[in-house]
Amino acid sequence: MSRWRTLRFDFSAMASPCSLQMDGRDEHVMRRAANEAMAEVQRIEKKFSRYTEGSVISRINQSAGLAAIETDTETSGLLDFAHSLWTQSDGLFDITSGVLRHAWDFKNARLPEPATLQGLLPRVDWQQVERHGNQVRLKQPGMELDFGGFGKEYAADRAAAVLQSHDIHHALVNLGGDLHALGERGLPELQGTPWQIEIQHPRQDTRQTDTPLALLTLARGGLATSGDYERFFIHEGQRYCHVLNPRTGWPVTHWQSVSVLAANTTTAGALSTIAMLKGPDAPAWLEAQGMRYLAVQHDGQVLRSNAATD
Amino acid sequence: MKKSNINGSQTATGVLLASLVLPGLAALAAITPLGAAAENAPEKTTIAIKYGHYNDSQPGWDRIKVDAAQVYVQAPIAGDWSIEASGVSDNVSGASPRWHTQNTALSGASHMSDERKAGDVKVTRYLARAAVSASVAISKEHDYTSNALGLDARWSTDDNNRTWTVGFGSASDTIDNTYSGGSTAINRHKSTNEFMGGVTQVLTPTDIVQFNLTRSLGSGYFNDPYKSYDQRPNQRDIWIALARWNHYLEKFDASLHSSYRNYSDTFGVQSHTLGLDWVQPAGRWTFTPGARYYSQSAANFYLDPILDAQGQYDQQAVVARANKLYGSNQSTDQRLAAFGAITLSMKVSYAFTPNTLADVKYESYRQTAALHLGGSGSPGLDPFNANFIQVGLTHRF
Fold it and tell me: Which residue of chain A comes nearest to B28, CA vs CA?
């Protein structure tokens, strides 16, 4: 064993900047672990992306209204998870709602034609997803599944699991702002201290400063942030963001951003998205889930969990 | 070493339980995230981290170490300084695409899209007294291609009293929106070279100063191809100077933290940021009132909105003016306007034990054109106000 060192690997995946940071003493092991973790992220992206020709999701979507598609245990597990999110969010988290994207043109800042939106809404319905064992069928033509709501977060957890399997115990995985901390810092001078995480300010452009919203320390677990600034346009003074309510097809407006801490990133990500969708009910709901959160309301007011200060 | 500050007892409910069934996730299972108890405004943390760092290496140095530094150094991250993250944090959580455009110093990519293909690798090597990083980045979108490389290093003297930082970055971008149906940018190029140097010095047992200088030279296409009539100069050179000084006043048993940042570029934008914090320990309490002032001038070619007789935005007149000026530099981007801002903050913290702290921070931010230094700023800008309150608990071990 040689001296302690930190390695940081920056890479791109899922249309986002990503990084792996780890403290350790065996550089060979660290590099091998990092390569495998990056490969795992790429595997998940390829397998579940709706853009990849031949991906599980593409095949399911292409067969909408037609045949059932045979999938595997992992896909099935994620669909179970999606089902559980749908139930626990009273239908707000619906992985069939991605189809609404066709009505919203964020690049050209155009509001959708009411008829277009109305035409798409009937295709949003998790209950129209038929499952038998590992077989999946979308009942209506034009329906689409989209794992965008938790795919990146799941990949962050899986990457952390890969690092752990290589005996890496001091690492931080960041996939485009969704983080998993796998143990505290390991360098002797930092041993036992948690990672420092900046929470981005949702209105950084307006504030003209680099000041983040908050700084959080995290030694173990997942952190994810959903915001109305990820993709949006402003039309006649009103902001339209990419988080769409599956019932109305319109963007949510109550929160500028919601950050959630949970035992894993998958949970944190799902909860932050559901919180965005739940609007004013989100704090009570997150408290009931026993989760720590930091949320910025539409008027800039910052709310945080009671648990976070205990 | 194991952490001991597991917070409260929480039950895993619903969503979390469902996630634990996913392959591999149960192996990671901590039922609650650890070490997520505290928050701090990191602006002051940068230098405070140096406090902690130097303190560790200078056992004979008292007072500040015991009192002031303790408040700030919630979790020392000495040895983990990286340019992209401004050296403040290990990482950023946020909605991803903007994080990328805002914080990646070398990347010019501003239109994150689903079809983006990119590869970039950076490896940082931390040594006993130094850290070296090298990076390359290639990013391709249908309308934007960027190639960048970067090198940076920092090292400390044997006594840890001085830390040097140098960095170099170079980026070459191509903008072409013909594939996305545009015709405003056809095979346009932009290249940027950035040089940064800095030094942090312990001057006396009561003074630490830090100075950073950044020079960025950019040439090529700076317009926003998706904004009508947006035309900017093809050269943008930037100077950024940042100075920080932390001074301990024995008479008051207090520290004064001050900082000044000066930004100027050849677009004509000049900005000043002045920050002051007074850190006053009083027994187990520490009071930190602070103030920050920001002012920026407008770019030479920024155009104010035109208002009609009723004071309403007159779009026709704006378009007519834009047509008249067609061919010369012009932009209506608000970020190029003149305005100013003031932040007032108050932080109170209480130490239960030397290792367990609670704190409350209130921050009030006011941004208006009228606050612009020595003048009224750009007309027609909406003022922006924000209030923040933060509470936190820190436990060190």
Answer: A161
C-alpha distance from B92 to closest chain A C-alpha (Å): 5
Residue written as token pair 């648990």: A307
β-strand pairing of B285-296 with B339-353: antiparallel
Q: Would you say residue B18 lies in a domain?
A: no
Q: B270 and B166: one domain?
A: no
Count of CB pairs separated by less than 8 Å, A with B: 335
Is residue A123 within 8 Å of A140, Cβ to Cβ?
A: yes
- Position B294 scores a pLDDT of 92
User: Across the interface, do A198 and B42 touch by the CB < 8 Å criterion?
Assistant: yes
CA-based nearest residue in chain B for residue A106: B113
What is the C-alpha to C-alpha distance for residues A111 and A113, in angstroms, rounded to an integer?
7
Structural domain contains residue B34: no
Q: Does A72 touch chain B (CB under 8 A)?
A: no
CB contact under 8 A, B102 and A204: yes
pLDDT at B120: 55
Q: How many CB atoms lie within 10 A of CB B228?
A: 9
Under 8 Å between Cβ of B258 and B276: yes
Range of B336's domain? 233-397
Contacts B34 to A, Cβ<8 Å: 184, 194, 218-221
Q: Which of A84, A220, A290 sits opposite B34 (nearest CB)?
A: A220
Assess whether B169 and B242 both reside in one domain.
no
pLDDT in the model for residue B101: 26
Q: State the Cα–Cα distance between residues B315 and B346, nearest whole angstrom.
A: 43
Q: Is the ipTM value over 0.85, yes or no? A: no
Total structural domains in chain B? 2
Q: Which residues of A touch B116 (CB under 8 A)?
A: 12, 15
Contact between B275 and B256 (Cβ < 8 Å)? no
Q: How many residues does chain A have?
A: 310
* Residue A44, amino acid: I
Domain shared by B261 and B381, yes or no: yes
| CB within 8 Å of chain B, chain A residues 221-260 | 221-227, 229-231, 257, 259
In a domain, B50, yes or no: no
Q: A235 CA to chain B: closest CA distance, Å? A: 14
Contact A253, A298 (CB under 8 A): yes
Handedness of CA A95, A296, A207, B279 (dihedral sign): negative
Q: Which among B176, B201, B231 is the end of a domain?
A: B231
Whether B220 and B243 share a structural domain:
no
Mean pLDDT by 10 residues, chain B (397 residues): 32 60 62 35 25 26 24 23 29 42 26 41 67 75 78 80 87 78 75 91 84 93 79 93 89 90 94 94 91 94 85 80 88 85 90 74 82 84 71 61
Residue whose C-alpha is closest to residue A286's, from A197, A224, A198: A224
Boundary residue ending a domain (B197, B231, B265)? B231
Tens-place pLDDT, residues A43-98: 999 898 887 788 889 999 999 989 899 999 899 999 999 998 998 888 999 999 88
Residues B253 and B356 in one domain: yes
pLDDT (0 to 100) of residue B28: 59
Task: Measure A188 CA to nearest chain B CA, in Å.
Answer: 10
pLDDT tens for each residue of A210-260: 566 777 778 888 899 888 776 667 766 777 777 888 888 888 888 888 988
Q: Model pTM?
A: 0.52
Are B242 and B391 part of one and the same domain?
yes
Using an 8 Å CB-CB cutoff, list chain B residues near A85: 15, 18
Report if residue B69 sits inside a domain: no
Position B144, amino acid: Y
For residues B301 and B368, membership in a common domain is answered with yes
**Domains of chain A with CATH codes:** 56-149 (1.10.3980.10)
Q: Quick one: pLDDT at residue A199?
A: 79
Tell whether A45 is within 8 A of chain B (Cβ): no
Same domain, B225 and B253: no
